[in-house]
């Protein structure tokens, strides 16, 4: 008897650390049963974000091995009917960062050559948004925020071609040549390749605590804005966050057509706003999603209240 399953592609080589793990090589195709994810408490849609799931248990079709592998090392490529394994509960285990996320903490930047300048180097006051990001958001919004494929599809290039284009200071109008899914991947790529995420890790504890403890959404949003705009950090970080939140607010205003709610955007973008820390055993995924959801919802309310 077969059941629904999911296919993933290895993006990086991984050398197993425990007996129950399996090795990964770039390009390996892996299968994970839907039943296994449901048994671990993950709902519909989470299969698209393996980095948010953590450790997955599955079958490597390339090497014919069964075992665990880190979600940070693979990408979702589609569904497939498979013979399901028996899911088993596992204790919490720290998840390794994908190799690309080590760039800000190592000296290998020059070798990889793919790390963007820090936000403080991309723009300065009185500018209110990084020029590269502004061009990208303008191109996405010009393509149509009511498109039902918005932020829902992934492309083979992973947005790399868009990033290379805007890095070469191409005019915004020339981004029109790219299809909407490629531009959306370009935004994810831009946020992923920042040396420090738009929400710096130093803010994670306060923001997560606020999201968990403050029940009133508007009060929570005000406190989160206060934390994110702290004078102890360069203003470029909060300005970039606010630029993105305004864009997400525009996306949600078209939710009847694109079917993207503030929560859905939180689920999609929380992995690039909150990068998993190697010292953390519990990634607080729900709090990460809520932070984005609350900020976007508050921005929408303010826009609707404005004369």
UniProtKB/TrEMBL annotation:
<feature type="compositionally biased region" description="Pro residues">
    <location>
        <begin position="85"/>
        <end position="97"/>
    </location>
</feature>
<dbReference type="GO" id="GO:0007165">
    <property type="term" value="P:signal transduction"/>
</dbReference>
<dbReference type="InterPro" id="IPR035591">
    <property type="entry name" value="PI3K_p85alpha_SH3"/>
</dbReference>
<dbReference type="InterPro" id="IPR051854">
    <property type="entry name" value="Rho-type_GAP"/>
</dbReference>
<dbReference type="InterPro" id="IPR008936">
    <property type="entry name" value="Rho_GTPase_activation_prot"/>
</dbReference>
<dbReference type="InterPro" id="IPR036028">
    <property type="entry name" value="SH3-like_dom_sf"/>
</dbReference>
<protein>
    <submittedName>
        <fullName>Phosphoinositide-3-kinase, regulatory subunit 1 (alpha)</fullName>
    </submittedName>
</protein>
<feature type="domain" description="Rho-GAP">
    <location>
        <begin position="117"/>
        <end position="303"/>
    </location>
</feature>
<dbReference type="InterPro" id="IPR001452">
    <property type="entry name" value="SH3_domain"/>
</dbReference>
<dbReference type="GO" id="GO:0005096">
    <property type="term" value="F:GTPase activator activity"/>
</dbReference>
<dbReference type="Pfam" id="PF00620">
    <property type="entry name" value="RhoGAP"/>
</dbReference>
<feature type="domain" description="SH3">
    <location>
        <begin position="3"/>
        <end position="79"/>
    </location>
</feature>
<keyword id="KW-0728">SH3 domain</keyword>
<dbReference type="InterPro" id="IPR000198">
    <property type="entry name" value="RhoGAP_dom"/>
</dbReference>
<feature type="region of interest" description="Disordered">
    <location>
        <begin position="85"/>
        <end position="115"/>
    </location>
</feature>
<keyword id="KW-0343">GTPase activation</keyword>
